[in-house]
Write a structure and sequence with these properties.
alpha+beta; 4 domains; 9 helices; single chain; about 50% helix; OB fold (Dihydrolipoamide Acetyltransferase, E2P); two-stranded antiparallel ribbon; 7 strands
């Protein structure tokens, strides 16, 4: 408890609270002759120092409660998915990051679901996770207290790879973003007291290894079929361009009058030159 308080007090002093003690030190260091002129420094320094102590005590109390809640959830909490039902912006920022409100719905197995709202900073990584509309959380059904597991949520959202290597077949399976299989695996690991931080080696636990690999193989076998690319349809055979009108022949079913009329139209519109017109007209007349 004392160590937590000292850490909180140092944090408060580093973030501006050091001004109060400095004012008090300067006030007493200058001595009685200067004190009547800087009397304000004493009262301001005293007020800031008192605020420092109160803020540090509040942070210590909040940290102690948070640690107790974390320990309780770690021991008795249920690992479940929280569904994001809405995200709204706020008008305030922390460290240049806009704060947002996230509405959550928890479905706890065997218990009635409940809704809640939490406020958080909209960091780029966190927004990638939120875009999957699912979060992994430890929930106490009795008190409805919860704690978001951001590392597990990143796996569910596909932000980080979820790779499993099997020594038996020498394959590596990537279940990135597959919420169902990953939740089953995490629940197995939690039930057996295996932490889910970083790389996990379960070769020393044959029962857990077989349970996990069974899920991984089934998910890995289904993924290629679902993700197999559909071959593009064959490109249609190129259609030859239509024969220009000046070279149409009588075999196409046109009468001589129609061909001559069309030839006149082509010359009038500037499609053919006068020389081409003359040659084509003579060709049509010679075919009579």
């Amino acid at each position: 408890m004392l160590g937590r308080y000292l850490k909180a007090q140092m944090t408060v002093l580093l973030f501006g609270g050091l001004v109060g003690p400095i004012f008090l030190i300067v006030y007493f260091a200058l001595g009685p002759m200067a004190q009547p002129y800087i009397n304000w420094m004493f009262w301001v320094g005293l007020l800031i120092t008192a605020a420092d102590v109160l803020i540090a005590l509040w942070l210590t109390s909040a940290g102690t409660k948070s640690a107790a809640t974390h320990q309780q959830l770690t021991q008795t909490g249920v690992l479940t998915l929280a569904h994001i039902t809405g995200i709204s912006d706020t008008s305030w920022f922390v460290n240049d990051q806009q704060m947002i409100k996230v509405n959550l719905h928890f479905d706890v197995p065997g218990q009635p679901g409940f809704d809640t709202q939490m406020t958080m900073a909209s960091s780029p990584v966190r927004m990638q996770i939120l875009n999957a509309h699912k979060l992994v959380a430890l929930v106490d059904p009795a008190t409805q207290k919860y704690e978001i597991d951001w590392n597990a949520s990143a796996l569910i959202a596909g932000v980080v790879p979820a790779q499993f290597t099997s020594d038996r077949d020498g394959r590596t399976y990537d279940l990135r973003g597959q919420a169902g299989p990953l939740m089953q695996i995490m629940q197995i690991l939690r039930a057996n007291g295996i932490p889910m931080d970083g790389t996990i080696d379960i070769r020393s636990n044959p029962v857990v290894r077989e349970q996990v690999l069974d899920i991984v193989r089934r998910a890995g076998a289904a993924a290629p079929a679902a993700a197999a690319p559909v071959p593009p349809p064959p490109a249609p055979a190129p259609v030859p361009p239509p024969m220009p009108a000046p070279f149409m022949t009588a075999a196409q079913g046109q009468t001589t009058a129609q061909r001559l009329q069309e030839l006149e139209t082509l010359r009038a519109t500037g499609t053919i030159t006068d020389d081409e017109y003359t040659k084509k007209r003579q060709q049509i007349l010679s075919e009579l």
